[in-house]
Amino acid sequence: MSEKQPGSNPWNNKTAVVAIMFAFIAGLIGALALRTSNDHTLQTSDSDEPLVQVRWRVPVAFGTNLPALGDNILQVSKRLETATAGRIRLEVFEPGTLIPPFSITEGVRDNKIPAGYTWVGYDQGRIPATPLVSAVPFGMEPWEFAAWYYEDEGQDLTEELYRPHGVHPILCGVVGPETAGWFRFQINRVEDFKGLKIRFAGLGGKVLQKLGASVTLIPGGEIFQALEKGAIDATEFSMPAVDQMLGFDRVAPYNYFPGWHQTFTAAHLVVNLDVWEQLSEPDQVLIEMACTAGVIRNLSRGEAIQGAVISGFPAKGVTPVRFSHKILKELQAITEEVLAEEAEKDEFFRRIHTSQTRFMEEYRPWKDHAYLPRDF
Amino acid sequence: MRTCRGTSNPVLELPHNRFSRWVDRLVIHIGEYVSWVWLLLLGIIVLNVLMRYLLSEGRIEFEEIQWHLYSLGFLLGLSYSYTRDAHVRVDVIRERLSPQTQAWIELYGTLFLLLPFIMLVVVASVPFIAYSFATSEVSQAPGGLPFRWLIKSVLLIGFLVLLLSVISRLSRVLYFLFARGSS
Fold this sequence. Notes:
The complex is a heterodimer.
Chain A: H1 13-34, E1 41-43, E2 52-59, H2 72-83, E3 88-93, H3 104-109, E4 115-118, H4 142-151, H5 154-162, E5 167-175, E6 181-183, E7 197-199, H6 202-210, E8 214-216, H7 223-228, E9 234-235, H8 240-245, H9 248-251, E10 254-257, E11 265-272, H10 273-278, H11 281-311, H12 313-316, E12 319-322, H13 325-345, H14 347-370
Helix pairs in contact in A: 2-11, 6-13, 13-14
Chain B: H1 18-34, H2 36-54, H3 60-83, H4 91-94, H5 99-134, H6 148-179
Helix pairs in contact in B: 1-3, 1-6, 2-3, 3-6, 5-6
């Protein structure tokens, strides 16, 4: 080992310090440059011709291979792109490729991403009222929810809910009821939920927790593994056509109905509030129109494909089961307790819950009189 | 760790200084105390499994405390293993280099890659924790643990301790490269 003499070292302390500072600063700049840039809206400089290119990276909470639940945003972005001749482009990113699926609105808030497509109930850890605008147990039917959202207070309340968080939510998809879950064994009484380890989202999960189940929330893509390995005993996720793609029918033979815990399921395009406010009004309206169309197209697609899946259950060894009226009544009683408790804890929850309850009462006479009974 | 390496070349022995000695002792102490979480974690997993399969009583709190403890263990273990030099290096190449070259690589690796990375994590974790605190974030799972900002703060703390141990090691590398012999 040849040690250099002190005198032969070409580095004196000062140059060394300068070199080191330079290296550090270069490294820091390099690392910052690796962070993705946020110039998602490229303004053209011509002021009288406000032609703005809108390029948004849009991460989604559900894989776009999932019918209705996931593919809706692809349709929305495609229609927007076609209608604007490529001027407004939402570039969809599969779950987990840009941002974890449960952190989408947080990423939008921090402007790491300009927008995202998600089920806002995933924010309930930070914003307790969000499940009310995404799925409510014993809540409204899909068109009833649309009526509350567009014609009553729904949209205003949802926007107000997210405003302090710097996020602008746009209702962009609705599907009908989900299944009440896939179970390895039968549930004949509400007591059977006790001790069950189950994946259940939103307020329905709180109801099952009251019944003694231990309720966990894992992203859609990870459920099958957990169910197959027995890490969970049962799960809900979405409608039969989606659940089948995730393979639940291969590991859990009992599929329960009706979807008491999510009578409707709403998805929102969440946009960073500053990004949204910088858009011109025509562009805002265009995006809103695309999303409103997304709602009815999403509902249509969801309704269109479930019947055939359920008909195919016997061939796969799956038994579709309906909870008895008695179980549903008991679940509803607990749901009311849960909603009342949540309303007590959070002011915004109380406001939205009150608004929904009032609307449902107003709607009730129409619902009771106008529609044929289900067995017609 | 260092002794069990095959040594074709003399291994880089960095001289200590007062600062690095003090910091390393602190980091080792923290690491040793924190390593008790592994025992605690083991106990909780066993308890969780027994309750679930013998008493069919599942507990989400237990499930969540498991990943909380795991995060605590490895985020604070980072600095310990760095200080102990027990982390993975590309030894095949490193062993063949002279201590002088090893020290230069270490210097530039630390300055170009490690320190900027730590700074990024530190800078990004502050709003991450602040938002969680401001919204009193709780677990999304019903019955899950409250005070999510606490476990998120461990990310910041873990990286700050790592920063400290990196600075300590950097001071030793600098001492080795520039100050050696002049004293």
